[in-house]
């Protein structure tokens, strides 16, 4: 999914930033709109970029991401996604305006153009889900909660057969500690114990949801977590392979798959 309209930039908590998107398929192209709104954390940034650009925003090395033993084998650094974040001045504005441990609610609302809808087994990608932050004696490592709500022609669509895969793109720091609990019936993903011991391991994990037999024309994703968390969400067709497990640190969630943070 790539942006074909809208402008990246900064918004107040009462404002939404809108984009137009397209998703190229073998014989057709799906289009639609996206609105992103972040409340609870002051000024925020929203835009469309690649994984490489997300890493660059945090001055993270790019070579290790593609050369580790368990890479995202298809697009790697070129993977596109939409992002929202609230506390990174490197984005070009003084948006580091909230106290540490401030919570926020980020809402991504995708609408398909009239007459179109998602395909079965589509992919939703979540870039580095979860976050960690410390203020004095208090440390936050979760939960960060993702809630997925889909509908078709105005009727709710079940997420009961959606499933989750989690990939650890770095092995140098050993197995990740972050836990991912997917409740398919409720459409919620809870991320806890966010790994913050090896700063270079960013993204800590990459999570992928497949949408099973569902078809929908509207999708809302609400993310409750830290104001400093980078929320990165992408959408891909069923033709996009899920990353292949290349090492022992591959997690397949048993309960249930569309294709951060300050101080990094």
Task: Lay out the secondary structure.
Elements: E1 2-5, E2 9-11, E3 16-24, E4 29-39, E5 44-50, H1 51-57, H2 63-67, E6 80-85, E7 103-112, E8 123-127, E9 133-135, E10 138-140, E11 144-152, E12 155-157, E13 163-167, E14 179-183, E15 188-192, E16 206-210, E17 218-226, E18 231-236, E19 250-252
Antiparallel strand pairs: 1-3, 2-5, 3-4, 4-7, 5-6, 6-18, 7-17, 8-16, 8-18, 9-10, 11-12, 11-15, 11-17, 13-16, 13-19, 14-15
Question: Mind explaining what this structure looks like?
Answer:
By secondary structure, the chain is mainly β. It has one domain. It is 5% helix and 42% strand. It contains 2 helices and 19 strands. The protein has helices spanning 51-57, 63-67, and strands at 2-5, 9-11, 16-24, 29-39, 44-50, 80-85, 103-112, 123-127, 133-135, 138-140, 144-152, 155-157, 163-167, 179-183, 188-192, 206-210, 218-226, 231-236, 250-252. A hairpin with a 4-residue loop joins strand 14 and strand 15. The longest helix is centred in the first third of the chain and has 7 residues, at 51-57.
């Amino acid at each position: 999914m790539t942006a074909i309209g809208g402008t990246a930039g900064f918004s107040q908590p009462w404002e939404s930033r809108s984009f137009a998107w397209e998703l190229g398929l073998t014989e057709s192209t799906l289009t639609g709109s996206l609105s992103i709104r972040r409340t609870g954390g002051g000024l925020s940034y929203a835009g469309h970029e690649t994984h490489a650009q997300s890493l660059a925003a945090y001055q993270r090395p790019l070579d290790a991401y593609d050369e580790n033993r368990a890479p995202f084998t298809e697009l790697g650094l070129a993977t596109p996604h939409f992002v929202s974040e609230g506390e990174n001045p490197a984005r070009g504005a003084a948006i580091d305006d909230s106290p540490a441990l401030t919570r926020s609610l980020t809402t991504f609302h995708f609408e398909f153009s009239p007459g179109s809808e998602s395909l079965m087994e589509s992919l939703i990608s979540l870039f580095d889900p979860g976050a960690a932050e410390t203020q004095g004696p208090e440390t936050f490592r979760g939960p960060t909660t993702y809630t997925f709500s889909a509908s078709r022609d105005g009727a709710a669509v079940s997420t009961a057969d959606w499933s989750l895969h989690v990939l650890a793109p770095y092995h140098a720091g050993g197995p990740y500690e972050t836990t991912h609990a997917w409740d398919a019936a409720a459409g919620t993903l809870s991320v806890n114990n966010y790994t913050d011991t090896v700063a270079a391991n960013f993204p800590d994990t990459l999570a992928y949801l497949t949408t099973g037999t569902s078809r929908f024309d509207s999708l809302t994703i609400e993310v409750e977590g830290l104001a400093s968390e980078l929320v990165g969400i992408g959408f891909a067709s069923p033709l996009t392979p899920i990353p292949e497990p290349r090492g022992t640190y591959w997690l397949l969630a048993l309960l249930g798959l569309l294709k951060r943070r300050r101080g990094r």
